[in-house]
Automatic annotation (TrEMBL):
Biased composition (Basic and acidic residues): 789-800
EC number: 3.4.24.-
Originating species: Antrodiella citrinella
Name the record gives this protein: Extracellular metalloproteinase
Amino acid composition bias (Acidic residues), ranges on this chain: 815-834
């Protein structure tokens, strides 16, 4: 009886999934994972303990390693170890070294066992820690599975039911036609979340316990990765027919898969890994690896052995952990695709020699066609960020060249005359598929004058798409221009090669290469949206921009800079949070929501000017004055009432709504810094001098020096440029899977590191205005960002006016207890307390 019921529940879900696969309202996407109640982020300086050998002259990597060794000692487990990831780096802008460690147990990677340590001058400034510290496990397969009757699972079920009901009634009441919740509506109709949840927590007895039902020849096959992968594909595919066939005849699919072991030469400590070919609905071979993940049980957590898969599909790029043992539960899943409803080695050639291109575009700062006109803009590349300009890349890094990835004996650059360069490949993708290298892109010839017509006319319905295609030259030009401008801007605030930026060639400056952003204009796979896929450093990011059928003539999202900036910022925040090689840190809940929010905030900050104004997101493309979010970004809390506690509302389940709250909080915080430091008309720092040094100009404050005469990092002079810097620096400091508290504390820590904390009170005041003061709390967090939140509108106690002003908290280990209150749900595990 029970089995039948579950089967039909899932079947309904799958049918719904199909119904929505080709709907404009959004692609199918999954994102959830265990809550780590034991994870901590400490954002105050940690003084070395007695036996700690750190010294200001010490190698920061040694300091971090020693620190982590000490931090993990109390686990008292011979089987637990860690290794320092190769994508750790020292930030040229701040001098802070960001070190990432991954935990291993019995030689197997703990996929969500992350420590990030931020070191400067021999001192640990801050760190995040989600290492497993539960019961020891022996071997690989002996962990107990999630108990479906556990308190944890029951709470989850109750929460899920409550939210589903609340959502349903919202939907029934016809509320919220904004895009963010259309995706949620699709989730609701599909029953995707509840059914996936069923598989993970509530039911051992799913229709997919294939081995148990005799659908595989032998039970010994149970641990094979193909079966776990098939289980995931059943949940992930938007094609219900295919899902049904997989359920009915799993063996036929599994037999076609081909598993090839990969022998990684580098990773002395890496878990065994494989690639799996012929996976239904995947567009590339699936990467597979054995790992552990931490799964909460009542009061603590256990390690579950899983297959960790990286699955690239048409509309998704998933990183998922599926339990090795039947019934192959999906323990966590992150979609690297995000929607928007909407000095260096010698520089190979003198920038001045490069012929400079011109583009007829909506210039930087003009958000969309409703607020400005097109004009002829120069290829105004930043010579630090793009040393050879936007239209040049080495043959060896050129996907269109036969020399690609050949022997790199001498670097030879190819100069292009189309929208193809070291940072961005822009082109049409009317077909809406994955091919891109030979897609059409305008070629301006030797003159490099990208001057094309944009003059769309009102048409009847059948002609509207064709009408938009008439200006493909103009729109690809715009996308190429905007993409390169963002690349250069973010570069100058520290999104460079070592921190994981997007470039084909890295000029010998470190980081992984061959990962420019593939930008599809007028992508045929959807309407009224945009999305960005961020695989780890060294693999191309992919941005897909769509037409919007919200007006006649259609509107082209490529022409709305805010949408392009929002999308590109997914790449920024994903690569900076948790390190360049970890794309799994912003998957769901609050962290996934902030992934959306940073894009809105940065896009809004870029378009804003000296005269304060409220701003909407995507207003032009969506043809809706208030845009695609619930509220416009505003200081006025009647116009935008969002506070931290807003996240408790049923309408705020999805990452876009969560992100909107985060962006609003940052907007309010940023205005505090602008009130104090004024406004810079341009966010672009001055071009560097010929020797690579950066002049202060009117952009930076006067250069300061340490007592030893060493240059300190340059500090942006104005409020808008300063908050831009602090937000990016904060991304580098925060832990993997950050909460709102962690991200807030990281921004405050970034200010401490950059300005010695001179904006401590402005930042706290700003956060407190929207409920994120020091006493804000969340209880009962769930895998989708659920929980009961408490706002705190009081600023930090040292900033209350009556008291003697104390600009910064006293650093040191004694501060730990005090800081715990700030951390809301975190526990009290503090190894250096006294
Ligand atoms: C690219 O242009 C630069 C300067 O304009 C020139 O020195 C270089 O030889 C060109 N590269 C090729 C492969 O033509
Ligand atoms: C749409 O307009 C085109 C040309 O303006 C015309 O040829 C075509 O018949 C029209 N289609 C419909 C359905 O009205
Ligand atoms: C795009 O520009 C090319 C020249 O670069 C031109 O030949 C072509 O006709 C243009 N396409 C459209 C649709 O205007
Ligand atoms: C700001 O407002 C003033 C006065 O209305 C106006 O002259 C100026 O052009 C505005 N500046 C910008 C950047 O919009
Ligand atoms: C905030 O907005 C409301 C509604 O538009 C308006 O009535 C009120 O005066 C505004 N408050 C301030 C302080 O500007």
């Amino acid at each position: 009886m029970r089995r039948l019921l579950v089967a039909s529940l899932v079947a309904v879900g799958l049918a719904g999934a199909f119904a929505h696969a080709h709907d404009n309202s959004g692609r199918k996407t999954l994102g959830f994972g265990p809550v780590h109640d034991h994870a901590v982020y400490r954002s105050t300086r940690v003084a070395p303990s007695d036996n700690f050998m750190g010294a200001s002259t010490a190698d920061p990597f040694d300091v971090a390693e020693e620190f982590i060794t000490e931090l993990t000692q109390d686990t008292d487990r011979d089987s637990s170890s860690f290794f320092i990831r190769r994508d750790s780096y020292t930030d040229k802008n701040t001098g802070i070294t960001h070190v990432y460690a991954r935990q291993y147990v019995n030689g197997i990677e703990v996929a969500d066992g992350d420590i990030n340590v931020n070191v400067k001058d021999g001192v640990v400034l801050s760190y995040g820690d989600s290492f497993y510290r539960g019961e020891a496990v022996s071997g690989f397969g002996s962990s107990t599975p999630v108990d479906p009757h556990s308190d944890y699972c029951q709470k989850l079920t109750a929460e899920l039911t409550r939210r589903a009901e609340a959502r349903q009634s919202l939907y029934n009441a016809g509320e919220q036609v904004v895009l963010g919740s259309q995706t949620a509506k699709a989730d609701l109709d599909m029953g995707v979340l509840p059914s996936v949840h069923e598989w993970n927590c509530a039911h051992v007895d799913t229709p997919f316990t294939m081995a148990a039902e005799g659908k595989f020849s032998s039970n010994d096959d149970n641990m094979y990765s193909e079966q776990a992968l098939l289980q995931f594909m059943i949940a992930a595919t938007p094609n219900s027919g295919l899902a049904q066939s997989m359920v009915e005849n799993p063996s036929s699919f599994v037999e076609k898969m081909r598993v090839t072991p990969v022998h990684d030469f580098h990773g002395g400590n890496a878990s065994p890994s494989f690639v799996i070919d012929n996976v239904p609905d995947a567009v590339a071979p699936v990467k597979a690896k054995m790992a552990f993940v931490q799964v909460p049980t009542d009061g603590s957590s256990t390690l579950q052995p899983v297959w960790k898969f990286e699955v690239e599909m048409q509309d998704n790029w998933y990183e998922t952990a599926v339990s090795v043992m039947p019934p192959h539960r999906i323990i966590s899943v992150v979609d690297w695709a995000s929607d928007s409803p909407m000095p260096v080695a010698p520089v190979p050639k003198e920038p001045s020699e490069t012929p400079v291109a011109t583009y007829n575009v909506f210039p930087w700062g003009v958000n969309d066609p409703a607020v400005g006109e097109r004009s002829i803009e120069k290829e105004n590349f930043d010579s630090l960020a793009s040393p050879v300009g936007w239209h040049s890349l080495p043959f060896d890094n050129d996907p269109a060249s036969e020399h690609s990835k050949g022997k790199k004996s001498s670097i030879k650059f190819r100069n292009t005359t189309d929208t193809w360069g070291n940072n961005v490949f822009a082109h049409e993708n009317w077909e809406g598929r994955n091919a891109w290298v030979t897609n059409y892109r305008p070629d301006a010839g030797k003159s490099l004058e990208f001057d094309y017509k944009y003059d769309p006319k009102e048409t009847n319905r059948t002609e509207s798409m064709e009408e938009a295609r008439k200006y493909i030259n103009a729109t690809v030009t715009q996308l190429f221009y905007t993409g390169n401008m963002i690349h250069d801007l973010y570069y100058r605030y520290g999104f460079d090669e070592v921190s994981g930026n997007f470039q084909q060639h890295n000029f010998g400056r470190g980081g992984e290469e061959d990962d420019a952003v593939i930008m599809n204009a007028q992508d045929g796979s959807g309407f009224n949206n945009a999305n960005f896929m961020t695989p780890p450093d060294g693999q191309n990011g992919r941005c897909r921009m769509y037409l919007w059928n919200t007006a006649n003539p259609y509107r082209d999202g490529d022409l709305e800079a805010g949408i392009v900036i929002h999308e590109y910022s997914h790449g920024l925040s994903t690569r900076l949070t948790g390190g360049p090689a970890n794309s799994g840190c912003l998957g769901w809940g609050e962290s996934g929501g902030m992934g959306e929010g940073w894009g809105d905030f940065l896009g809004t900050t870029i378009r804003s000017n000296k005269n304060y104004s409220d701003y909407a997101m995507g207003a032009w493309a969506a043809n809706r004055p208030t845009g695609i979010r619930n509220f416009v970004y505003s200081l006025n809390d009647t116009i935008n009432p969002s506070t931290y506690k807003t996240l408790d509302k049923p309408g705020y389940w999805g990452v876009h709504a969560i992100g909107e709250v985060w962006a609003e909080i940052l907007w309010v915080v940023s205005q505090n810094l602008i009130a104090k430091h004024g406004f810079s008309d341009s966010l672009y720092p001055p071009q560097p001098n010929a020797d690579g040094t950066v002049p202060e100009g009117d952009f930076y404050r006067a250069q300061e020096y340490t007592a030893a005469g060493v240059k300190k990092p340059l500090i942006p002079k104005h409020g808008n440029s300063l908050i831009f810097q602090l937000v990016l620096n904060g991304m580098k400091l925060q832990p993997c899977r950050p909460s709102f508290f962690d991200a807030r504390d990281a921004i405050i820590a970034a200010d401490e590191a950059l300005t010695s904390g001179e904006n401590f009170c402005e930042l706290w005041d700003g956060f407190a205005k929207r409920g994120l003061g020091p006493g804000a709390k969340v209880e009962g967090r769930t895998p989708w960002g659920g929980g009961i939140r408490t706002d705190d509108f009081k600023t930090h106690k040292t900033c209350v006016e009556e008291e003697e002003p104390v600009p910064t908290p006293e650093p040191g280990p004694g501060d730990g207890d005090d800081d715990d209150e700030d951390d809301g749900g975190d526990d009290d595990d503090w190894p250096w307390a006294q």
